[in-house]
Specification:
about 325 residues, alpha/beta, Rossmann fold, 2 domains, 3-stranded mixed β-sheet, about 40% helix, globular, binds uridine-5'-diphosphate-4-deoxy-4-fluoro-alpha-D-galactose
Protein backbone atom coordinates (compact mmCIF):
# COMPACT_ATOMS: atom_id res chain seq x y z
CA UNK A 1 0.00 0.00 0.00
CA UNK A 2 1.31 3.47 -0.88
CA UNK A 3 2.22 5.70 2.04
CA UNK A 4 0.81 9.20 2.40
CA UNK A 5 2.48 11.51 4.93
CA UNK A 6 -0.23 13.24 6.96
CA UNK A 7 1.00 16.19 9.01
CA UNK A 8 -1.43 16.92 11.82
CA UNK A 9 -2.80 13.36 11.57
CA UNK A 10 -3.46 13.35 15.33
CA UNK A 11 -5.77 16.36 15.07
CA UNK A 12 -9.47 16.71 14.33
CA UNK A 13 -9.44 16.82 10.54
CA UNK A 14 -6.17 14.92 10.08
CA UNK A 15 -7.38 11.91 12.06
CA UNK A 16 -10.52 11.67 9.92
CA UNK A 17 -8.31 11.98 6.81
CA UNK A 18 -6.22 9.03 8.03
CA UNK A 19 -9.35 6.91 8.35
CA UNK A 20 -10.49 7.88 4.83
CA UNK A 21 -7.02 7.23 3.36
CA UNK A 22 -6.91 3.79 4.94
CA UNK A 23 -10.36 2.94 3.54
CA UNK A 24 -9.12 4.07 0.11
CA UNK A 25 -6.13 1.68 0.23
CA UNK A 26 -3.36 4.07 1.33
CA UNK A 27 -1.26 3.85 4.49
CA UNK A 28 -1.48 7.17 6.36
CA UNK A 29 1.74 8.05 8.22
CA UNK A 30 0.95 10.63 10.89
CA UNK A 31 3.54 13.33 11.65
CA UNK A 32 2.37 15.43 14.58
CA UNK A 33 3.96 17.28 17.50
CA UNK A 34 0.86 16.67 19.68
CA UNK A 35 0.61 20.36 20.61
CA UNK A 36 -3.10 20.20 19.87
CA UNK A 37 -3.44 16.61 18.64
CA UNK A 38 -3.91 13.34 20.50
CA UNK A 39 -1.84 10.16 20.31
CA UNK A 40 -5.04 8.17 20.87
CA UNK A 41 -6.43 9.65 17.64
CA UNK A 42 -3.72 7.92 15.58
CA UNK A 43 -5.53 4.66 14.81
CA UNK A 44 -5.11 4.00 11.12
CA UNK A 45 -1.36 3.89 10.43
CA UNK A 46 2.08 4.55 11.91
CA UNK A 47 2.81 7.54 14.14
CA UNK A 48 5.94 9.70 14.06
CA UNK A 49 6.05 12.40 16.70
CA UNK A 50 7.87 15.45 15.44
CA UNK A 51 7.73 19.15 14.76
CA UNK A 52 7.59 20.80 11.34
CA UNK A 53 10.28 23.19 12.53
CA UNK A 54 12.67 20.22 12.88
CA UNK A 55 13.95 19.69 9.34
CA UNK A 56 16.24 16.76 10.19
CA UNK A 57 13.33 14.90 11.76
CA UNK A 58 11.21 15.53 8.66
CA UNK A 59 13.99 14.29 6.36
CA UNK A 60 14.26 11.12 8.45
CA UNK A 61 10.53 10.42 8.16
CA UNK A 62 10.55 10.95 4.38
CA UNK A 63 13.50 8.54 4.10
CA UNK A 64 11.82 5.92 6.29
CA UNK A 65 8.43 5.85 4.52
CA UNK A 66 8.99 7.13 0.93
CA UNK A 67 5.49 8.62 0.74
CA UNK A 68 3.83 9.12 -2.65
CA UNK A 69 2.11 12.29 -1.45
CA UNK A 70 1.88 14.70 1.47
CA UNK A 71 -1.33 15.91 3.11
CA UNK A 72 -0.56 18.96 5.20
CA UNK A 73 -3.02 19.68 8.01
CA UNK A 74 -0.67 20.61 10.87
CA UNK A 75 -1.35 24.23 11.80
CA UNK A 76 -2.56 26.50 14.52
CA UNK A 77 -6.10 27.39 13.52
CA UNK A 78 -7.87 29.61 16.02
CA UNK A 79 -9.01 32.88 14.51
CA UNK A 80 -9.32 34.64 17.90
CA UNK A 81 -5.90 33.52 19.17
CA UNK A 82 -4.25 34.53 15.90
CA UNK A 83 -5.31 38.13 16.56
CA UNK A 84 -3.67 38.11 19.98
CA UNK A 85 -0.53 36.16 19.06
CA UNK A 86 0.16 36.72 15.35
CA UNK A 87 3.86 35.82 15.69
CA UNK A 88 2.92 32.34 16.84
CA UNK A 89 0.86 31.87 13.67
CA UNK A 90 3.46 33.25 11.26
CA UNK A 91 6.22 31.21 12.87
CA UNK A 92 4.45 27.90 13.29
CA UNK A 93 2.25 27.90 10.19
CA UNK A 94 4.44 29.69 7.65
CA UNK A 95 7.97 28.68 8.71
CA UNK A 96 6.77 25.15 9.51
CA UNK A 97 5.17 24.83 6.07
CA UNK A 98 8.29 26.17 4.35
CA UNK A 99 10.34 23.46 6.08
CA UNK A 100 7.85 20.80 5.07
CA UNK A 101 7.71 21.96 1.45
CA UNK A 102 11.50 22.00 1.19
CA UNK A 103 11.74 18.54 2.76
CA UNK A 104 9.05 17.28 0.36
CA UNK A 105 10.99 18.56 -2.64
CA UNK A 106 14.30 17.23 -1.31
CA UNK A 107 12.70 13.79 -0.97
CA UNK A 108 11.54 13.90 -4.60
CA UNK A 109 7.83 13.88 -3.69
CA UNK A 110 5.80 15.91 -6.18
CA UNK A 111 2.24 15.65 -4.85
CA UNK A 112 1.06 17.91 -2.06
CA UNK A 113 -2.43 18.47 -0.65
CA UNK A 114 -2.80 21.59 1.46
CA UNK A 115 -5.40 22.48 4.02
CA UNK A 116 -6.26 26.13 3.49
CA UNK A 117 -9.27 28.13 4.55
CA UNK A 118 -12.04 30.47 3.51
CA UNK A 119 -10.56 32.81 6.13
CA UNK A 120 -8.15 33.80 3.32
CA UNK A 121 -11.09 35.58 1.60
CA UNK A 122 -11.87 37.87 4.53
CA UNK A 123 -14.99 40.00 4.78
CA UNK A 124 -16.42 40.69 1.33
CA UNK A 125 -19.95 41.97 1.26
CA UNK A 126 -22.24 40.50 -1.37
CA UNK A 127 -19.44 38.72 -3.18
CA UNK A 128 -19.91 35.13 -4.29
CA UNK A 129 -16.85 33.37 -2.88
CA UNK A 130 -15.37 31.11 -5.51
CA UNK A 131 -11.78 30.09 -6.10
CA UNK A 132 -11.11 33.20 -8.20
CA UNK A 133 -12.32 35.63 -5.53
CA UNK A 134 -9.78 38.08 -4.20
CA UNK A 135 -8.17 37.11 -0.91
CA UNK A 136 -8.25 39.78 1.79
CA UNK A 137 -7.76 37.96 5.12
CA UNK A 138 -8.71 40.01 8.18
CA UNK A 139 -6.94 37.82 10.75
CA UNK A 140 -3.41 36.48 11.12
CA UNK A 141 -4.62 32.90 10.76
CA UNK A 142 -6.06 33.59 7.30
CA UNK A 143 -3.01 35.64 6.35
CA UNK A 144 -0.67 32.79 7.32
CA UNK A 145 -2.64 30.34 5.17
CA UNK A 146 -2.66 32.70 2.20
CA UNK A 147 1.13 33.04 2.49
CA UNK A 148 1.48 29.25 2.30
CA UNK A 149 -0.74 29.17 -0.79
CA UNK A 150 1.62 31.71 -2.40
CA UNK A 151 4.60 29.64 -1.35
CA UNK A 152 3.18 26.54 -3.04
CA UNK A 153 2.70 28.46 -6.27
CA UNK A 154 6.34 29.56 -6.21
CA UNK A 155 7.64 26.04 -5.54
CA UNK A 156 5.52 24.66 -8.34
CA UNK A 157 7.20 27.12 -10.70
CA UNK A 158 10.71 26.41 -9.41
CA UNK A 159 10.57 22.69 -8.56
CA UNK A 160 7.42 21.28 -10.15
CA UNK A 161 5.64 20.69 -6.81
CA UNK A 162 2.11 19.86 -7.96
CA UNK A 163 -0.49 20.62 -5.37
CA UNK A 164 -4.17 20.72 -4.53
CA UNK A 165 -5.30 23.49 -2.18
CA UNK A 166 -8.57 23.05 -0.33
CA UNK A 167 -10.13 26.16 1.13
CA UNK A 168 -12.38 24.89 3.90
CA UNK A 169 -15.44 26.60 5.17
CA UNK A 170 -16.48 25.60 8.72
CA UNK A 171 -15.78 21.97 9.46
CA UNK A 172 -18.19 20.17 11.79
CA UNK A 173 -19.46 16.73 12.82
CA UNK A 174 -17.50 13.60 13.62
CA UNK A 175 -16.84 10.07 12.42
CA UNK A 176 -20.24 8.27 12.57
CA UNK A 177 -18.48 5.31 14.27
CA UNK A 178 -17.15 7.75 16.91
CA UNK A 179 -13.63 6.32 16.50
CA UNK A 180 -12.34 9.87 16.09
CA UNK A 181 -13.90 13.30 16.57
CA UNK A 182 -13.36 16.94 17.48
CA UNK A 183 -11.54 17.38 20.79
CA UNK A 184 -9.72 20.62 21.48
CA UNK A 185 -8.49 21.83 24.84
CA UNK A 186 -9.57 24.50 25.31
CA UNK A 187 -12.47 24.21 22.88
CA UNK A 188 -13.25 27.32 20.84
CA UNK A 189 -15.51 26.04 18.05
CA UNK A 190 -19.19 26.72 17.95
CA UNK A 191 -20.86 23.30 17.79
CA UNK A 192 -18.82 21.53 20.51
CA UNK A 193 -19.30 24.58 22.74
CA UNK A 194 -23.07 24.47 22.20
CA UNK A 195 -23.08 20.76 23.10
CA UNK A 196 -21.05 21.48 26.25
CA UNK A 197 -23.58 24.16 27.24
CA UNK A 198 -26.48 21.76 26.62
CA UNK A 199 -24.71 19.17 28.77
CA UNK A 200 -23.99 21.68 31.55
CA UNK A 201 -20.24 21.26 31.04
CA UNK A 202 -20.21 25.05 30.74
CA UNK A 203 -22.70 27.60 32.01
CA UNK A 204 -23.77 28.95 28.62
CA UNK A 205 -22.75 29.57 25.05
CA UNK A 206 -21.66 33.17 24.56
CA UNK A 207 -22.81 34.47 21.18
CA UNK A 208 -19.98 36.64 19.85
CA UNK A 209 -21.82 39.65 18.49
CA UNK A 210 -25.51 40.20 17.82
CA UNK A 211 -25.18 43.43 15.83
CA UNK A 212 -23.76 42.12 12.56
CA UNK A 213 -25.45 43.11 9.32
CA UNK A 214 -27.23 39.76 8.94
CA UNK A 215 -30.95 38.88 9.30
CA UNK A 216 -30.64 37.91 12.99
CA UNK A 217 -27.53 39.97 13.81
CA UNK A 218 -25.17 36.98 14.24
CA UNK A 219 -22.36 35.77 11.96
CA UNK A 220 -23.12 33.43 9.10
CA UNK A 221 -20.98 30.41 8.19
CA UNK A 222 -21.10 27.51 5.74
CA UNK A 223 -20.69 24.21 7.61
CA UNK A 224 -19.26 21.08 5.98
CA UNK A 225 -19.10 17.61 7.55
CA UNK A 226 -15.57 16.47 8.37
CA UNK A 227 -16.16 13.08 6.68
CA UNK A 228 -17.23 14.75 3.44
CA UNK A 229 -14.28 17.12 3.71
CA UNK A 230 -11.71 14.33 4.03
CA UNK A 231 -13.32 12.37 1.19
CA UNK A 232 -12.45 15.38 -0.99
CA UNK A 233 -8.81 15.07 0.14
CA UNK A 234 -8.62 11.46 -1.04
CA UNK A 235 -10.09 12.62 -4.36
CA UNK A 236 -7.44 15.35 -4.34
CA UNK A 237 -4.62 12.77 -4.13
CA UNK A 238 -6.23 10.81 -6.97
CA UNK A 239 -6.56 14.04 -8.99
CA UNK A 240 -2.83 14.67 -8.58
CA UNK A 241 -2.08 11.11 -9.67
CA UNK A 242 -4.00 11.51 -12.92
CA UNK A 243 -3.64 15.21 -13.80
CA UNK A 244 -0.82 17.61 -14.46
CA UNK A 245 -0.56 20.90 -12.61
CA UNK A 246 -2.28 22.25 -9.51
CA UNK A 247 -5.80 23.23 -8.55
CA UNK A 248 -7.67 25.12 -5.82
CA UNK A 249 -11.04 23.95 -4.52
CA UNK A 250 -13.45 25.52 -2.05
CA UNK A 251 -15.02 22.95 0.27
CA UNK A 252 -18.38 24.17 1.50
CA UNK A 253 -22.02 23.49 0.78
CA UNK A 254 -23.18 26.94 -0.32
CA UNK A 255 -25.69 27.17 2.56
CA UNK A 256 -25.23 29.77 5.27
CA UNK A 257 -26.23 29.28 8.93
CA UNK A 258 -26.16 32.04 11.51
CA UNK A 259 -24.94 31.35 15.03
CA UNK A 260 -28.57 31.49 16.19
CA UNK A 261 -29.59 29.02 13.43
CA UNK A 262 -27.01 26.54 14.71
CA UNK A 263 -28.16 27.02 18.32
CA UNK A 264 -31.77 26.38 17.28
CA UNK A 265 -30.87 23.27 15.29
CA UNK A 266 -28.87 21.90 18.24
CA UNK A 267 -31.90 22.43 20.44
CA UNK A 268 -34.09 20.47 18.02
CA UNK A 269 -31.62 17.63 17.48
CA UNK A 270 -30.86 17.05 21.17
CA UNK A 271 -34.29 18.09 22.44
CA UNK A 272 -32.55 20.02 25.22
CA UNK A 273 -32.40 23.76 25.91
CA UNK A 274 -29.24 25.68 24.97
CA UNK A 275 -28.33 28.29 27.59
CA UNK A 276 -26.98 31.38 25.79
CA UNK A 277 -25.46 34.73 26.72
CA UNK A 278 -25.17 37.57 24.22
CA UNK A 279 -21.61 38.92 24.17
CA UNK A 280 -19.33 41.26 22.23
CA UNK A 281 -17.95 40.61 18.80
CA UNK A 282 -14.79 38.47 18.65
CA UNK A 283 -11.97 40.37 16.90
CA UNK A 284 -11.08 38.85 13.52
CA UNK A 285 -14.52 37.35 12.82
CA UNK A 286 -15.95 37.88 9.32
CA UNK A 287 -19.65 38.69 9.02
CA UNK A 288 -20.43 36.03 6.45
CA UNK A 289 -18.43 33.23 4.81
CA UNK A 290 -20.38 31.03 2.40
CA UNK A 291 -18.94 29.15 -0.56
CA UNK A 292 -20.16 30.04 -4.02
CA UNK A 293 -18.44 27.29 -5.94
CA UNK A 294 -19.27 23.78 -7.16
CA UNK A 295 -15.83 23.16 -8.67
CA UNK A 296 -15.06 20.27 -6.28
CA UNK A 297 -18.31 18.52 -7.24
CA UNK A 298 -17.76 19.09 -10.95
CA UNK A 299 -14.05 18.38 -11.28
CA UNK A 300 -13.33 15.92 -8.46
CA UNK A 301 -16.71 14.19 -8.47
CA UNK A 302 -17.06 15.16 -4.79
CA UNK A 303 -20.51 14.24 -3.45
CA UNK A 304 -21.05 15.36 0.15
CA UNK A 305 -23.50 13.02 1.89
CA UNK A 306 -23.51 14.12 5.56
CA UNK A 307 -23.16 17.90 5.30
CA UNK A 308 -26.63 18.86 6.45
CA UNK A 309 -26.82 20.67 9.78
CA UNK A 310 -28.98 18.05 11.49
CA UNK A 311 -26.59 15.22 10.59
CA UNK A 312 -23.52 17.24 11.60
CA UNK A 313 -24.99 17.99 15.02
CA UNK A 314 -26.17 14.38 15.46
CA UNK A 315 -22.70 13.04 14.68
CA UNK A 316 -21.06 15.64 16.92
CA UNK A 317 -23.51 14.76 19.72
CA UNK A 318 -22.74 11.03 19.39
CA UNK A 319 -19.02 11.84 19.63
CA UNK A 320 -19.68 14.26 22.51
CA UNK A 321 -21.17 11.36 24.47
CA UNK A 322 -18.44 8.85 23.49
CA UNK A 323 -15.20 8.15 25.32
CA UNK A 324 -12.56 10.71 24.32
CA UNK A 325 -8.78 10.48 24.04
CA UNK A 326 -6.71 10.47 27.22
CA UNK A 327 -3.29 11.11 25.69
N1 LIG B 1 -19.00 31.68 17.97
C1 LIG B 1 -19.75 32.20 19.01
N2 LIG B 1 -19.44 31.78 20.27
C2 LIG B 1 -18.44 30.92 20.55
C3 LIG B 1 -17.68 30.39 19.48
C4 LIG B 1 -17.99 30.80 18.20
O1 LIG B 1 -20.65 32.99 18.81
O2 LIG B 1 -18.22 30.61 21.73
C5 LIG B 1 -19.31 32.11 16.62
C6 LIG B 1 -18.13 32.82 15.97
O3 LIG B 1 -18.14 34.19 16.28
C7 LIG B 1 -18.40 32.52 14.49
C8 LIG B 1 -19.08 31.16 14.51
O4 LIG B 1 -19.56 30.97 15.83
O5 LIG B 1 -19.30 33.45 13.99
C9 LIG B 1 -18.13 30.03 14.19
O6 LIG B 1 -17.00 30.16 15.02
P1 LIG B 1 -15.90 29.01 15.16
O7 LIG B 1 -14.92 29.47 16.19
O8 LIG B 1 -16.56 27.70 15.35
O9 LIG B 1 -15.25 28.99 13.72
P2 LIG B 1 -14.57 30.18 12.93
O10 LIG B 1 -15.54 30.61 11.87
O11 LIG B 1 -14.00 31.21 13.78
O12 LIG B 1 -13.30 29.44 12.33
C10 LIG B 1 -13.41 28.19 11.70
C11 LIG B 1 -12.08 27.48 11.74
C12 LIG B 1 -11.09 28.21 10.93
C13 LIG B 1 -11.64 28.55 9.58
C14 LIG B 1 -12.93 29.29 9.72
C15 LIG B 1 -13.57 29.71 8.47
O13 LIG B 1 -11.62 27.37 13.06
O14 LIG B 1 -9.97 27.38 10.80
O15 LIG B 1 -13.82 28.44 10.40
O16 LIG B 1 -14.75 30.40 8.81
F1 LIG B 1 -10.78 29.33 8.91
Amino acid sequence: MANVLVTGGAGYIGSHACKALKSAGFTPVTFDNLCTGWKDAVKFGPFEQGDLLDRARLDGVFAKYSPVAVMHFAALSQVGESMQKPGKYWHNNVTGSLNLIEATIAAGVKQFVFSSTCATYGDQDNVVLDENSLQHPINAYGASKRAIEDMLKDFQASDGLEHVIFRYFNVAGADPDAEVGEFHQPETHLIPLILDAIDEKRDALTIFGTDYDTPDGTCIRDYVHVCDLVDAHVLGVKWLQSNKGSRIFNLGTGSGFSVRDVVNQAHHVTNKPVPIVEGDRRPGDCTKLVSGSTRAEQELGWTPTRSNMKQMILDAWRWHNAEKYSE
